[in-house]
Specification:
single chain; 431 residues; alpha/beta; Rossmann fold; six-stranded mixed beta sheet; five-stranded parallel beta sheet; binds pyridoxal-5'-phosphate; threonine synthase activity; amino-acid biosynthesis; Ser/Thr_deHydtase_PyrdxlP-BS; pyridoxal phosphate; TrpB-like_PALP
Length: 431
């Protein structure tokens, strides 16, 4: 598979080069030159395939010759070695639970796939690669866990001190080995600014081979398609589903649309946003206006200029009318999100996290006007990662899942730095 830059000013590249570079030299996002078509036989008999067979079949055309088949198979097996259950909440709404991975967030799949690809591409290199990533909570944990122990790759995670939840902090700071956590005395934007500055700093680039692990990387973006195939394996209704995805940078939902375009039956996609309503507004006005992000209780979706939206537009030939035939987007505020968590818990004893609650509300509203349809939400994080909100509105103390119990006895190790680039650079140059 060949990848081109959406800015059209850089040479085409292979999967390997796109994954190692992250972004094209012209600052465009890489995009596959064509969307492969899956056979009808494969879709119709999807229930008879194992998760691993689906993973390999779907990913193989995108990876092409960059990775030999036996190694790609192994990467797929390690990427998806947990459950993706589709759980019924009401007669019409189910929840695709994507929080059964090691860091309890859907980002595990993309991070695990990408880290193993980079480990393979780096296998003969003398120089270590240093992955720099800023996180508001979920990304850092998934990336750290995904890259833990990968040879030749060091990971440095910057997170805002005091602004991630206790479980998230333990996931970032207790791994050791090739993972270092930097606790920045500032907010997420300060962390992000440091990382951006680092990528263009001459001294750091001389000393380190730096790369990023954010969702614009094709090796993190494309494997997210697999959730949608796993959901369809468990879909027992005649009509295809309405799929509602809580969206921030729009990488996850964009991967779902790619799956649809390669043959997966889907009736409609809804991108559910919090107060950050750049895309819902675009669909209404036809004019795309990036905004400053505002803080909400579903903070992994606090994005004012979603980086992957350009990829969605590319899938629809950059035409808004085409997009609207399959896709809608709405904004749900914090008050409604809290009321939804409470209501769904009281009526159905199902505990949503704030991101899943945004999606639930958006889908429920849609189904009021499409009474013959059924659908599911993507539940992107475990509620225990956002205990303050969930416990406040439901009164329930959330049980910590067994898979993360071991974290509680570990001690946090982090490097505390003041915000601002110079402190970070000094620390790096001494490292
Ligand atoms: C990252 C994240 C999202 C947003 O996903 P995008 O692909 O950026 O749209 C939603 N929910 C949770 C819990 C996340 O961590």
């Amino acid at each position: 598979m060949i990848y081109y830059s959406l800015n059209h000013q850089s040479p085409n590249v292979s999967f390997a080069e796109a994954a190692v570079k992250g972004q094209a030299p012209d600052k465009g996002l890489y995009f596959p030159e064509r969307i492969p078509t899956l056979s009808k036989e494969f879709i119709q008999n999807i229930k008879n395939y194992s998760k691993e067979e689906i993973g390999f079949t779907v990913m193989k055309p995108y990876v092409g010759e960059s990775i030999p088949d036996d190694i790609l198979k192994q990467i797929v097996v390690e990427t998806i070695n947990f459950d993706f259950p589709l759980v019924k909440i009401t007669d019409n709404i189910s929840s695709l639970e994507l929080f059964h991975g090691p860091t309890l967030a859907f980002k595990d799949v993309g991070a695990r796939f990408m880290s193993r690809c980079l480990g393979y591409f780096n296998r003969n290199s003398q120089q270590h690669t240093t992955v720099l990533v800023a996180t508001s909570g979920d990304t850092g944990g998934a990336v750290a866990n995904g890259f833990l122990g990968v040879e030749g790759v060091d990971v440095i995670i910057l997170y805002p001190s005091g602004k991630v939840s206790p479980i998230q902090e333990l996931q970032l700071t207790t791994l050791g080995q090739n993972i270092t956590a930097i606790e920045v005395q500032g907010n997420f934007d300060d962390c992000q600014a440091i990382v951006k500055q680092a990528f263009i700093d001459d001294d750091l680039n001389k000393k380190f081979s730096l790369t990023s692990a954010n969702s614009i990387n094709v090796a993190r973006w494309l494997p997210q398609q697999l959730y949608y195939f796993f959901a369809y394996q468990q879909w027992h209704h005649e009509e295809p589903p309405i799929i509602c995805v809580p969206s921030g940078n729009f990488g996850n939902i964009c991967a779902g649309i790619v799956a649809y375009m390669s043959g997966l039956p889907v009736k409609h996609f809804i991108a559910a946003c919090n107060a950050n309503d750049t895309v819902p507004e675009f669909l209404q006005t036809g004019e795309y206006k990036a905004k400053q992000a505002v803080a909400t209780i579903s903070n992994a979706m606090d994005v004012g200029n979603p980086s992957n939206f350009i990829r969605i537009m590319e899938l629809f030939a950059q035409k808004i009318e085409n997009l609207k035939s399959l896709f809608s987007s709405v904004s749900i505020d914090d008050a409604v999100t809290k009321a939804t968590i409470k209501e769904v818990y009281q009526q159905y004893q199902y505990l949503l996290d704030p991101h899943g609650a945004v999606a639930y509300k958006a889908l429920d509203d849609y189904l009021q006007y499409h009474t013959n349809d059924k659908g599911f939400i993507l539940e992107t994080a475990h509620p225990v990662k956002f205990p303050d909100t969930v416990e406040e509105v439901t009164g329930v103390t959330i049980k910590i899942p067994e898979s993360v119990q071991h974290l509680l006895s570990k001690s946090k190790k982090s490097v505390m730095l003041s915000s601002g680039f110079e402190a970070f650079k000094d620390w790096m140059m001494q490292a």
